[in-house]
Amino acid sequence: MILKRKIAKARLRLGKKHSTSQHHLQDKVEMTGCQKYQDSLRLKNVYKNFTRAICNFILSEISTPYLQPIAEELNIGINEFREFIGRKREEIRGVIELRGFLISQSQDSLKLSCFKKAFQKMAEIFIKFFAANWICSSKLEYKLDYLKFRHHLLKKVKNPSLLHSKLV
User: For the whole model, what pTM was predicted?
Assistant: First the structure.
């Protein structure tokens, strides 16, 4: 019930009219150029922000209990993996870099492909269990949009071939 009220308030703030009864439905109003631009800004940096948050999660001590079994399974060193993530975190600019983190290429070494598999598993853990807390405690302006985007991103992290430069 509380969540429904929060969603209704958020829709009112965004200027969307939402009604469940047929009597109160109104015709759609055409969006102005400014509104279209603002809608495109909502998810402009979503991949960059999520990827950086995943990297920060991996580098933090909170991830250690989740990272240890993955590191043992893939035969990688935790400190070595964290150093790799720390170097790559600075290069993140969007969906292309996220895709590079997730998809193993034929020219990748065995160690690099293991790092990518570990990143994928840690990304799934972050999105499932820690992303909602990160979103709610961050300075993001469009928190509701980011909360809705989690499921979409989780599907793409599980199947990285779906990642492309379009947002949706």
Answer: 0.75
